[in-house]
Amino acid sequence: MSRRRTALDALNPAARVLLAVVLSIPLIITLDWLSALVALVAELVVLALCRVDMVRFAKRLAPLLLVAPLGSVSMALYGEVGGRTWWHWGPATISDHSLWLALALFIRVFALAIPAMAMLADVDGTRMADGLAQVLHLPSRFVLGSLAGFRTLGLFTADWRTLGQARRARGLGDEGRMRRWALMAFSLLVLALRRGAKLATAMEAKGFGSPVARTWARESRVGRADALGLLVCLAIGALAFGAAWHWGTLWMVWS
């Protein structure tokens, strides 16, 4: 079943990387809960307007339901103390200040993950390489090496499955789970190094490492959709800053 096309597919892959960075900067330099909440709500609204499959997207965000609470609990216990102290034991102190920080961290984890996941999860590797080389003008050697590595990521799962089946065929797959995992991980590392060496040799033989100027089969351009995406991202950041400043919760990392 093919993935439903969304408005995000009209964006240049290189522009999608930049847009994810633009959306992340306001959330990285602030600590208050309101700016993160406003950014999170705005991001979800934009994704819905772009016709993103929200159910599928929510499944991708599911692991954060474990990560975000862990970070929030740590912040609540060991964050900066201020206001009323609710509980204290040793180095751990729960206060009004640390609880607000914990809430802000919980929201900010999702607000930071959504742009990165929305912009980069379904990007075609070849189009991304074209954009990085032609739009961002990164070195072609770096771009092509990254593309080759990206293409081989999908092989790790198949290699892991094959290694597991081979061990079970030899009667070694049902005992010593930790030892089996360590041995399989080492075997996978060896396979990856061998594959990388062969791939590098093949690419050098085909002229991918030549110092001459490289041409590209597909032209990569930025257009109106990318400009509109940049305006939307800037608007989300400005809205988050403005809301936090208006209601007096704005808290910068250096303050």
Helix and strand pattern = HHHHEEHHHHH
Radius of gyration: 23 Å
Shape: globular
Question: Which strands sit side by side, in order, in the main sheet?
Answer: 1-2
Structural class: mainly alpha
Helix content: 55-70%
Uncertain ranges: none
Taken as a percent bin, the fraction of beta residues is: under 5%
Membrane topology: Multi-pass membrane protein
InterPro entries: ABC/ECF_trnsptr_transmembrane (IPR003339), ECF_transporter_component (IPR051611)
Keywords: Cell membrane, Membrane, Transmembrane, Transmembrane helix
Protein name: Energy-coupling factor transporter transmembrane component T family protein
A few lines on this structure:
InterPro entries: ABC/ECF_trnsptr_transmembrane, ECF_transporter_component. With 255 residues, the protein is mainly alpha-helical.
Features:
globular, mainly alpha, single chain, transmembrane helix, 255 residues
List the helices and strands and how they pair.
Elements: H1 13-28, H2 33-49, H3 54-61, H4 64-78, E1 85-89, E2 92-95, H5 96-120, H6 125-134, H7 140-169, H8 177-205, H9 224-246
Antiparallel strand pairs: 1-2
Helix pairs in contact: 1-5, 1-9, 2-5, 2-9, 4-5, 6-7, 7-8
Tell me about this structure.
The chain is mainly alpha-helical and 255 residues long. The protein has helices at residues 13-28, 33-49, 54-61, 64-78, 96-120, 125-134, 140-169, 177-205, 224-246; strands spanning 85-89, 92-95. Strands 1-2 form a two-stranded antiparallel sheet. A hairpin with a 2-residue loop joins strand 1 and strand 2 (92-95). Helix 2 runs parallel beside helix 5 (96-120) and helix 4 (64-78) runs antiparallel to helix 5. It is globular and about 65 Å long. The termini are far apart. The model has no long low-confidence stretch (mean pLDDT 84). It comes from Luteococcus peritonei.
